[in-house]
């Protein structure tokens, strides 16, 4: 028994060394700067190339082949790398996605996959765009990029089981439009991308899960449940860094968040708010009250 354990430990040690050697070799081949590697991932056009670049960067950082720090010149692209399809249109041109039809069901899964693909680019953009922050900031957003890549891969596989693929349906560019709007200030980015746009996913996911279960798509519902659990953590990361940057600048977070919502004409939340998930994502009670009032003023419910 002891010999078997020793053999297993030796094998695991050998495997770790091989993974570290591979990551080191890739680091030398692709560039020794983690920032260069993150930029390559952001600018990758092909889906598989982007997903592989994110995985390779995470492996290189975890193995110690690359060390994260904030000493770099920002070179984030104005537009991310993405495939030619899906066709990007105005949100008003998108049809309602009903799970009552096979086509509408696939369109719904495609819409979530598109959000997750954009979320990969948004996390990578945060890595590339904002220098001078603690190493933990870059570690957090690399972790987010990797989880978003997993979410996208799960949704794409499910979409293929439904007879479609990513790019088969039109989509909108709202997430990246907010990336452009918040490109100059990490505090504004943390306030309005994770804490507004991504937090909307916390609110709409429970109803989507119910719709998928009602249509008999248990696998699709389980994927959205996984995404919801992970997205709470992603929004919480945004909350922590928003508060970190507010403290650094001597700002009170709650009124600052309210001011930015108005200043940037941020999208209103949709009722009902998932207050339990938002609390776990580190929204204050004052923020929740303000968001509830904004949502009621918008008169939009699900």
Low-confidence stretches: 1-31
The oligomeric state of the chains shown is single chain
Largest sheet: none
- First-to-last CA distance: 58 Å
Count of DSSP-assigned helices: 11
What does this structure look like?
By secondary structure, the protein is mainly alpha-helical. It is built from eleven helices and no strands. Helix 4 runs antiparallel to helix 5. The relative contact order is 0.09. The N terminus is likely disordered.
In short:
This protein is mainly α and 302 residues long. The chain has helices spanning 2-30, 34-43, 47-63, 102-129, 135-161, 174-181, 186-214, 218-248, 253-263, 275-280, 285-298.
List keywords for this structure.
302 residues; mainly alpha
Topology:
Blueprint: H1 2-30, H2 34-43, H3 47-63, H4 102-129, H5 135-161, H6 174-181, H7 186-214, H8 218-248, H9 253-263, H10 275-280, H11 285-298
Helix pairs in contact: 1-3, 2-3, 2-4, 3-5, 4-5, 4-7, 5-8, 6-7, 7-8
